[in-house]
Amino acid sequence: MGSLTIGAFARAARLSPKALRLYDELGLLRPARVDPVSGYRLYEPSQLARARLVAWLRRLGMPLARIRVVCSLDPASAAREVAAYWAQVESDVVARRDLAAFLIDQLSGGDDEHMTLRIRYAKHSDIGRVRDANEDSVYAGTRLLAVADGFGGHGRGAPASAAVIEALRPLDAGVAAGDLLTALDQAVHSADAALREITRSDPAMEGAGSTLTAMLWSGSRLGLVHIGDCRAYVLREGELFQITHDHTLVQSLIDEGRLTHEEAASHPQRSLLLRALEGSGVAADLKLHEARPGDRYLLCSDGLSTVVPVQAVHDTLATVADPDDAVRRLVDLANDAGGPDNVTCVVADVTDQEAPRE
């Protein structure tokens, strides 16, 4: 078979001539030659395999820039790249599905009458064994729990995390169940704006920012906002579940199948954040949960999660009944493991009975 005109090649590849012209302009699929007289693009049959690959990748929804990368790889490496892309798509779909479920419930007039639950809570924050200052900030109230981990070095993290917590503090006064996620989203935007203003008024704060994980209760509904690498867990019926997803480089590599959890623990860039509050308008994750009597929630900074094994966290939450004793035990575990970072924990027990606070 000789050279194919763009029309014939388009039919064979099941692409439109318009798509082929675009791929030519982007360098994805150049014609074998261009007729000097007519200007027609001419393709070789051997180019069909690449054209079909491009077509399938487009059907997957892969961006053109990433398709260019896949097409430049050998088959085994290209397969790994496609697998990594699809793993990220599935992760994004899960996050959007949770938000869609919330919106469907709200728009369909879902029942807002829920059992009124209360929480019995305690918090504890410690400088650790290595750092010169504590850059974590924490808040625990009857409706709001929040942990923020500031960064930026030279003491800049502390005012950043404090500003984030201060922006969320008014939520503890109470929010209607149907407004939980909206209220949290607005509070995060206020926190981000506060960081932007801090940087604008004090150039020495340039580069400072904070992570944030917070929970807000109304009735039996729990709104969760998360950005960065603080974490939230729930102990339910004896099982411990992590209900946040780290916004870190190593977590993204795990999601894409490029790194194992064991490899991530010793990765030189394991603390590199992909998302955080820095006054730049980055979006946070928002989720809605249905809390149950008997649930025990843990919010913690990465000073706990990076050095204390999950099993030890589970055992502490499952066996230490008093929330105050539990948070202090968790902080002790982090310090016993070397305390390389500030460590902050909040433990909250959900009950349908009136209970004393911390």
The domain count comes to 2
- What is the number of strand segments? 13
**pLDDT average, as an integer?**
89
User: What is the CATH top level name of the largest domain?
Assistant: Alpha Beta
Q: Provide the helix percentage.
A: 40-55%
Cα distance spanning the termini: 81 Å
Alpha plus pi helix count: 12
Poorly predicted segments: none
> In sequence order, what are the helices and strands, one letter per element?
EHHEEHHHEEEHHEEEEHHEEHHHE
Outline, from the CA principal axes?
Answer: elongated
> Structural class per helix/strand content?
alpha+beta
Instruction: Write out the strand line-up for the largest beta sheet, numbering strands in chain order.
Output: 4-13-12-9-10
Largest sheet: 5 strands, antiparallel
Keywords: DNA-binding
Pfam families: MerR_1, PP2C_2
InterPro entries: DNA-bd_dom_put_sf (IPR009061), MerR-type_HTH_dom (IPR000551), MerR_fam (IPR047057), PPM-type-like_dom_sf (IPR036457), PPM-type_phosphatase-like_dom (IPR001932)
GO molecular function: DNA binding; DNA-binding transcription factor activity
